[in-house]
Amino acid sequence: MAKRTIVTMPGDGIGKLVLNEAIRVLDAAGFDADYVHGDIGWEFWCKEGDPFPARTQKLLEKYKIGLFGAITSKPKDKAEAELAPELKDKGFSYYSPIVSMRQKYDLDICMRPCKTFKGNPLNFIRRGFGGVIEEPLVDVMIFRQNTEGLYGGVEWTNPPDLVYNGLMTHKKFQENFAWCPRPDLAVSTRIFTRKYTTRIVKAAFEYAHSHGYKTVTVCEKPNVIRETSGMMLKIAQEMSKNEYPDINVQNTNIDAQMMWLTKNPETYHVIVAGNMFGDICSDAFAGLIGGLGFACSANIGPEIAVFEPTHGSAPKYAGFNPSIVNPIAMILSAVMMLEHIGEMEIAARISKAVADVIEEGKVKTYDMMKLSGNPDVFSKGAVNTVQMTDAVIAKLR
Ligand code: NAI
Ligand code: MG
């Protein structure tokens, strides 16, 4: 396969550490690539007033594939306070660069797999009949719409006249919210478009089809959020009927899904949801398979795709030397990248190496030992970030 160029965007905090570790694994596994560095994150907000500089955007536009660590985002007042003095009051406003990236490049298909690794001490267990302890095998792919919905950014406090007057044309608004003084009114919209809702639902069906699953679960709340959730469910039902007659649609409400999650997680395999419910659902499932140290993701658009762990920059651990955090989520995100570009053999070898290390159970980062994140975790038997990576590399065949 032709040599690829990958844009690496380490970002802030532990993003920098774990991305480095993933590249070590890719190199050791024989993935033949060039890496170009892209600046991103808080540092560039503070210094330049732009956490996602144009030069990084150019790299992504050119090379199309990105590996992203994690960034730090802070509230509005902190963002203003930390901006370089010469940039203050020049009209810069902070916007999360990963959210900007998803919207700018239409990275609308977010895939978040949650799969049990055998032997992971963090695996979810439950009590079955007769008091036996069961460890259900979780194997779910969550398809989260990544650019619209409640995270679309269309929101106001004290909405302008046109918006307010528009809202006042709605009977429910008149009945229930007209009493509220406008400055005390905050409105966040939940916009779904047919085009992008169809794309995420289609991605879920295609995945189910190619992996032999017979059900796609739409995890929304169409009985209450009738327009947006209702649109997604209807699109899924029509797609099942017209394009995938072998695949059924199951409709679960997000709240009930959170309850069923621990009751019977093994019955779910392909879930599709809007932006926020997909975010919630994927974090919840990730909790069953080991949490943030294991949760990887892909953001896929028509041209560009970016792969990242779902954890953030964990600033409280960023200064630890040696680092205590688990690099597996980042390594598995790199595996998703390999699968996306068709490097199946290398992807499978890395996945197997990670699975072998976990199953063997000799090498564990602090999270796998259920320790709190303190520098003393090593004296309790935890390995550091680099040692975990080394263990994965040692298992590569
Ligand atoms: P976080 O994910 O950075 O950390 C939460 C906790 O999860 C940590 O304190 C640690 O206990 C655990 N954790 C995270 N990654 C781990 C790893 N690899 N191994 C072991 N344990 C791990 O979320 P938090 O603290 O809410 O946010 C910190 C910063 O990260 C914020 O500025 C936030 O805005 C940003 N963030 C960025 C994301 C991104 O870049 N996509 C996603 C989530 C948060
Ligand atoms: Mg999240």
Helix and strand arrangement:
Elements: E1 4-11, H1 14-28, E2 33-37, H2 42-48, H3 54-63, E3 65-70, H4 76-82, H5 97-104, E4 109-115, E5 126-127, E6 133-134, E7 139-145, E8 155-157, H6 161-168, H7 171-177, E9 186-188, H8 194-211, E10 215-220, H9 228-242, E11 248-253, H10 254-263, E12 270-273, H11 275-288, E13 296-300, E14 305-309, H12 315-318, H13 328-340, H14 344-360, H15 385-395
Helix pairs in contact: 1-13, 1-15, 8-9, 10-11, 13-14, 14-15
The protein binds 1,4-dihydronicotinamide adenine dinucleotide and magnesium ion (MG).
1,4-dihydronicotinamide adenine dinucleotide is lined by residues 70-73, 98, 292-293, 308, 311-316, 325-326, 329, 367, 373.
Task: Please provide a written account of the structure.
With 397 residues, the chain is α/β, with parallel strands linked by helices. The protein folds into three domains: 1-107 and 300-397, Isopropylmalate Dehydrogenase (3-Layer(aba) Sandwich); 124-151 and 192-288, Isopropylmalate Dehydrogenase; 155-188, no CATH class. Helices cover 41% and strands 17% of the residues. The strands form three sheets. The chain has a ten-stranded mixed β-sheet, with helices on both faces. A two-stranded antiparallel ribbon has the order 5-6. It binds 1,4-dihydronicotinamide adenine dinucleotide and magnesium ion (MG).
